[in-house]
Amino acid sequence: LPPAPQAPLSVHSLEWSGQRVAVKLAALRGQLAEAGAGALLVTMIPGWSRALGMLTALATTAVALWLTATVWGGESLRSELGGWGVPLGIALRADGLAAALVAISINATGYFGSAGSSRTFWPLWLLLWSALNGLFLAADLFNLYVMLELLGLSAAALGALTGTREAAEANLRYLLVGLLGSMTYLLGVALLYTGYGVLDLDLVAESLIPGPVAWSALALMIGGLLLKAALFPMHFWLPPAHANAPAPVSAALSALVVKAAVYLVLRLWLDLFDGIVTEGAGMLLGLLGAGAVLWGSWRALRAERLKLLAAYSTVAQVGYLFMFLPLLTATPDGPERETLLTALVLLALTLGFAKAGFFLAAGLVQKSTGHDRIRELGGAAQSLPAATFTLGLAGVALIGLPPSGTFFAKWVLVGQAIALGQWWWALVVMAGTLLAAAYVFRVLARAFNREPTPKCFLTDPRTEIPALLLAALSALGVGLAAQPIAVLLGAGV
Question: How far is CA 162 from the centre of its chain?
């Protein structure tokens, strides 16, 4: 049949369409610039740091929500800064995957409400936020490196805010490991630029051919990012850094910063090196992920401190994310691969909310009692009921009980592993689930024990609300919103 006749566009409709596009592209640029400008303002006017920081956070949150809604509507945005197109200019890109992870960062403002009076916190936090947004939206390899550096510097400084010797040593180690990872990544970028003369992700993907240059760049870039993601056995820096940081900072590091490195591995693996990676390479990362699940869960079970347990649990949960890579590599394009990708992102979102709530609840316990020793948590269920309930809800997500997003992700992971004949991943998932249940119930058993009863628990229940909301999102919200998140991921991926 011939196409139906369409009414001609009027001048006003064309102008309105152009204005809408211009506003959306301005929002895309503003998502990157607002947090950085706010960091500069709170540094220049430290007396107004709390007010300016909160205003910047609200403005950045509004733009992030608008950006997510725009991509959810089916649009994939791309903007060239300064009017310079590729390969010379700096481009920003927002598709479904980037927008889904930008949405995580808008929840981090509430973590630090009690630390707003600190003049050193707000510049570092807004710089971290700006680096996260830039990492999620950058469309070229070199600017990804710049954002990685900013992210590592601000995260290490935030982790040392307690001022203790242990925190300083742990975060100095974190800083040095992060610099090593960034430089290794940069060496891979230099190889690609030398070989192909472009840095834009789309242009490099079009030019990339299998060979020594591509394979060496893949090994260097992914290897550097694995250091930042703390994948076993390169996780040695993460437990002390997260356990000795302030609890809100630990929540941000576990929920956002580590996931950012995993996000970048995912972006490069599925987008840039899609025709280069082999099933053997995917199998290697999957085996490292399996080692992380088993070793991290075992160390969490034997941990004596609540925050150290959460830190080793982060090592284990990162391993689950990498166990998806061999399955994604072996699965051809189609509905099964899309389902795997959706399950992977759902798992990252669920674990981000769960670890944020868990660390905040652990911080409340530590602040109330002066310690976070698990064997001395008796009476916590009676004196801090909401915090204890938060640990239980976060535990639901960490174990993978329904209706959490972790349950859906593990179900898809096990089902696809069996379908592909890679049944050993199912054994790792079952073992990790049992170990997670063991260390979660170990904490809850102590909390519901009346002896010994701590003497100085908090009595204001409002301090427990943010952690409880985050844990509820992990246990209920993300899993029930699986279908809308799948629609968001389908935009531009």
Answer: 23
Residues 364 and 248: their CA atoms lie apart, in Å, by 10
pTM here is 0.82
- Cβ of 305: how many Cβ atoms within 10 Å? 17
Among residues 63, 134, 138, the alpha carbon closest in space to that of 93 is found at 138
Spatial distance between the Cα atoms of 473 and 311, rounded to a whole number of angstroms: 20
* Cα–Cα dist 359/374, whole Å: 14
With contact defined as beta carbons under 8 Å apart, do 350 and 409 qualify? yes
What is the sign of the dihedral through the CA atoms of 390, 393, 399 and 400?
Answer: negative
Looking up tokens 């948590």 gives 377
Block residue for tokens 């401190």:
305
**Distances in whole angstroms, Cα of residue 128 to Cα of each of 94, 158, 473:** 19, 9, 23
In angstroms, rounded to a whole number, what is the distance separating the alpha carbons of residues 30 and 24? 10
What phi and psi values does residue 319 have, to the nearest 5 degrees?
-60, -40
Question: How many Å apart are CA 171 and CA 48, to the nearest integer?
Answer: 28
**Cα–Cα distance, 396 to 399 (Å, whole number):** 5
Q: Which amino acid is at 55?
A: L
How far apart (Å, rounded) are the C-alpha atoms in residues 403 and 258?
A: 25
How far apart CA 489 and CA 76 sit, in angstroms, is 11
Give 284's Cβ-side CA count (13 Å radius): 9
Buried b (16+ CB within 10 A) or exposed e, 403-438: ebbbbbbbebbbbbbeeeebeebbebbeebbebbbe
Q: DSSP of 319-364, one letter per residue?
A: HHHHHHHHHHHHSPSSHHHHHHHHHHHHHHHHHHHHHHHHHHHHHH
Q: Rounded CA gap, 119 and 110, in Å?
A: 17
Are the CB atoms for 247 and 371 separated by under 8 Å? Answer: no
Residue 269 near residue 221 (C-beta atoms within 8 A): no
83: left (phi over 0), alpha (psi -120 to 50) or beta: left
C-alpha triplet 51, 52, 54: angle, nearest 5°:
65
Q: What is the pLDDT of residues 227-267, one digit of tens each?
A: 999 899 888 888 888 888 877 788 778 888 888 888 899 88
Could you read off the pLDDT of 41-68 as tens digits, one per residue?
666 776 666 666 666 666 766 766 667 6
> Which contacts qualify for 433-438: CB closer than 8 Å, 24 or more apart?
433/399, 433/400, 435/294, 435/297, 435/298, 435/300, 435/301, 435/316, 436/297, 436/300, 436/313, 436/316, 436/395, 436/398, 436/399, 436/400, 437/399, 438/301
Say whether 491 sits in a helix, a strand or coil: coil
